[in-house]
Amino acid sequence: MRFDIARAGSGLTYEIRNIVNVANRLQELGVEVHWENIGDPVLKGEHIPDWMKEILSDIIKDDLSFAYSPTQGMDKTRDYLVGRVNRRGKAQITKDDIIFFNGLGDAIARAYSAIRVDARVIVPEPTYSTHFLAEVLHASFPPNSYRMNPYSNWHPDLRELEQKVKSHHSIVGILVINPDNPTGFVYPPETLQQIVRIAKEYDLFLIFDETYINMVYNGKTTVPLSDIIEDVPGFSMKGISKEFPWPGARCGWIEVYNAHRDETFARYIDIILKQKMSEVCSTTLPQISIPLIMEHPEYKNYLNERIRHYERLSNIAYNLLKDVPCLIVNKTNGAFYMTAVFNEAFLNNRQTLPIRHREVKEFVEELVSQKIELDKRFVYYLLASTGICVVPLTSFFTNLQGFRMTLLEKDEAKFEQIVKTIAEKVVEYIDSSR
Q1: Beta pairing partners, 341
Q2: What is 15-46+300-431's CATH number?
């Protein structure tokens, strides 16, 4: 080429997927991999019930399911979602306040790219990689973040949040992920109300990622943004990837609140919509299915059965990991992830785990010979030694060292054995340099 056409990279990596490349190489070398890294219930063995498949079979017989949808989404589906919000009686919206996207990854990318480069959204730390990458790439500058505190059950540091909002005038919005990925924290209503207060007092807008809003357990409760937003501008992000679950559908949407109350925010939403118009529309068939599946008499029972399974695995993992002396572990109460944090004093670059296979050992030793985070070093050794694939916590853009695993394994006995192995290998790894 006459000159370098590739845009300069950020140096950031989507480790949830990147670790797959390492695991695939180890599979080629004979390692049996247990995939605990990515939140895909279907790949982890979730059986899609026959009644749901029958709904989709009936939809596909209609030629319109092969057509473009309106740019903002199917009218009947948006009317249905409007009814779900308005029946709660808090926020009131119309179908014009709903915009569909090709999955929430698409929604996230467009939401941040529509913001001026000198305006920032403050994000939780650790935070889900897609949000972080989109926010950083839109501004090409390191982010502002507020800490989720592992010593306080992952509760966000609201004093820090408010102080940063007050001090950094470039901050125009606050991101909340509820229930949280990667920590599994479920925001109490009073905490959400405090965040709304901060947004109102400092004239900000709110982005709430509510992908897992209907997956809460262990006696915890929360509320959607629509219940507590009052007259503050903002939007909720929702989807079917994890709830149905149907990640391959690439179907998500935003629900916009109070755009009519703020001219600047209304222009911002209009930019997002105009970007969507250039793409024409989002996937049609999954949109058509939403009211039919959600209103099916078996849907609530099916979802509740899955939630109870995640609750059981949450407690299994917590009980097995909480007493490991070098780990800080909080019980997961929503979504389907468990995050453990190392006491940083326990990690160093001399620690190892035994690897029987010579080629596997050489491959991992080459990886860890590079300058990498200490929790990533542990994750590589765990993978090579046991085949268990988890994600290093630093991949969620935090200085906290640890790892995230899923609660998706369908075989509870197998899951218990996996977590027992992790607990044993953590201790073995820590002791290896003593």
Answers
A1: 328, 402
A2: 3.90.1150.10
> What burial letters (b/e) apply to 91-118, b meaning 16+ CB within 10 Å?
bebebebbbbbbbbbbbbbbbbebbeee
pLDDT per residue, tens digit, the chain (434 aa), is 676 655 555 555 566 667 888 999 989 989 999 999 989 999 999 999 999 999 999 999 999 999 999 999 999 999 999 999 999 988 999 999 999 999 999 999 999 999 999 999 999 999 999 999 999 988 888 889 999 999 999 999 999 999 999 999 999 999 999 999 999 999 999 999 999 999 999 999 999 999 999 999 999 999 999 999 999 999 999 999 999 999 999 999 999 999 999 999 999 999 999 999 888 889 999 999 999 999 999 999 999 999 999 999 999 999 999 999 999 999 999 999 999 999 988 999 999 999 999 999 999 999 999 889 999 999 999 999 999 999 999 999 999 999 999 999 999 999 999 999 999 999 999 999 76
For the chain, the structural domain boundaries read 15-46+300-431, 67-294
CB 78 within 8 A of CB 256: no
CATH number of 67-294: 3.40.640.10
How far CA 424 is from CA of 205, 327, 353, 409, in Å, comes to 45, 12, 11, 19
Please report where in the chains the tokens 């920590």 appear, as a residue: 183
Give Cβ neighbours of residue 27 (< 8 Å, ≥ 6 apart). 33
**Are residues 195 and 188 in contact, defined by beta-carbon separation less than 8 angstroms?**
no
pTM: 0.95
**Cα separation, 174 vs 120, whole angstroms:** 9
